[in-house]
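FAQ: What does a ligand-bound record look like?

Like this one, built around iron/sulfur cluster:
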Amino acid sequence: MDEETEKLGEELKRKVREVFGRSLAIREVDAGSCNGCEVEVNSLTNAIHDIERFGLHIVASPRHADMLLVTGPVTRNMEIPLRQTYNATPGPKMVVAMGSCAISGGIYRGSYAVLDGVDKVLPVDVYVPGCPPRPQAIIQGILVALGKMEERKGQRS
Amino acid sequence: MTVEKLRLIVEELPPELYSKVRSAKVRGNDLRLVTGIDDLASLAKHIHGAYQAPLVTMHATDDRAAEDCFKLYVILSPKGMDAFVTIIAALEPRSQRFVSLTPQINEADWYEREVQDMFGLEAIGHPDPRPLVLYDDWPQGEHPLRKDFPLDRRPPRVKGEYPFTKVEGEGVYEIPVGPVHAGVIEPGHFRFSVAGEPIINLEVRLGYVHKGIEKISESTPYWRGTHLAERISGDNSVAHSTAYCQTVEALASAEVPERAEYIRTVMLELERIYNLIGDISGIALDTAFSVGAANGYLLREKALNLNECLTGSRLLRSVNVIGGVRKDLSANDREKTLSALVRLKLEFEDLVDLMVTSTSLLDRVETTGRLSTEMAIRLNVVGPVARASGVDRDVRRDHPYAAYDRLNFLVPRGTAGDVNARTRVKIDEVRESFSLIDQALDGMPSGPIRTVVENIPAGEMAMSLVESPRGELVHWILAGKERPYRHKIRDASFCNWLAMEEAVLGNIVPDFPLINKSFNLSYSGNDL
Ligand code: SF4
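The answer part, i.e. the structure of the complex:
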């Protein structure tokens, strides 16, 4: 058990219920990461963090997703697949840019083969810093994104 | 000893090849032969065959500014020697062509395709000269590793299409998968040709996560290069950064303090433990053995926590520094590690018991995804995958670095080359890693952990091999002023992807994820 995860998780569970009334479906897209970020996304589902119990579900298809969790600087060769994935995700949708690379290109910034961050390609709702961000930071990022979603909902009604 | 053995290689050359060697020098454990570009293939083939010397790396440099030519480097590792043979050949001035080695040395295949893409040099006679790294929409005539290509040039996309291999016949159909997959894994494209259930051809198309790391390194000062090396393949941070640091240290002829060598060893083995436990859990998951997977991933989380406790980073980042390590291991760290490992070991054995007695799991892994010894050797497969197919090679033993020559360990091997054998080899490697950490913590001498490394002579070259959790990886640097002039990186995955294309043949598509998991290759490390 990890206290930080538990605390964040309970808050998350409340928020997810409030905003969605069901669980939140997340699709992860590796847009050129070093795979370090994937290690931590995978850690979210182990028995210690076990995010499913807070109503977070990592899904296999963008068509089922409410949120894209994008890692990597967006390589030239992943730009088109990333756009396609985004377009296949039904709205309203959220984009979380996870890790230094996704935020700005990170250590690969300025290279011929990358686009220097997710917001060069898609509208980003939340940036989660870290290289890679710890699992708790990812959970917190998702929480912030949910808050934004709620705000947007409020504005519409 | 080594020097004599290497000199003997020159003396033993058949006269027609001997006359083609323009210069032969031994530097440390490296025999450097300079030859003409037209003799490169025959000289390399001879050493490859006569000394059972697999190809460690093959790459090019752009020396047009100083010498008006490109150069090719072929590095071979003669069996049974802790030594290397580097063959260097300059292309004719202004020439952009060389005779392909691939018809003679099979494992040169991808290296030459990479040289074609990145330098625009044509490998004449290459059996499969399609692009490897650059995409169909990349314009002709732009080659990123040429010196006149600026790091930040982003050429506009052009129209193009990748010519996949077509397999035809009655009832044959294609299944394209990726680049974005269903699971949380890296992107890559797999194209299966299937006749009924069995796979009759697989084509792996990679390069999606190509970030230009070798080019970035050429404008990255050495001290920062360590950070870049940690981000070549994120889950192999210590292995890559160790190889990078060792290469720079070799360039500067610097001696790393012994204590730092021991600390590096501990970190390298901690990295192996969390990676291989992850692989084993993944295999359990893909055989639908959920209890095993859940327990395995829990152990991996515990290993990541231990990493964080010791270094502040779950992925062991920022451990290495040129000249040693950044942070010492205190007596308290030692106690923490030992007590965490005692528990981890017991729990790992429970997991192993659970897995090897599960008939449903065994049923899925036995005879699945077979890679024969002959094929493993032919493709120069490395790491646990090679060892599971009976190849007896481990850099830690054969080309020792850090503290490995002062520690005892076995190199586990299998024979069947199936998913089962790969699982068993990985299990045994985790056991060896536990013992290596115990020994390293026990034998660790006191003293400084870092030496100052300066004066890296421009124009010098050096290389370092490290046995990463996925197998042998290589860093090779030709030094420039304060940063590499050329930095060649070769991850273990680069050697093993083609082997996966072989291992899946005759298997059914639903077994592919399992076979893939048992290889567990890195896309980022491969694509660079
Ligand atoms: S943020 Fe760091 S860990 Fe994540 S992909 Fe980028 S380099 Fe790797």
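Follow-up question: can I read anything off the structure? Yes, for example: Residues 172-205 of chain B form one domain.
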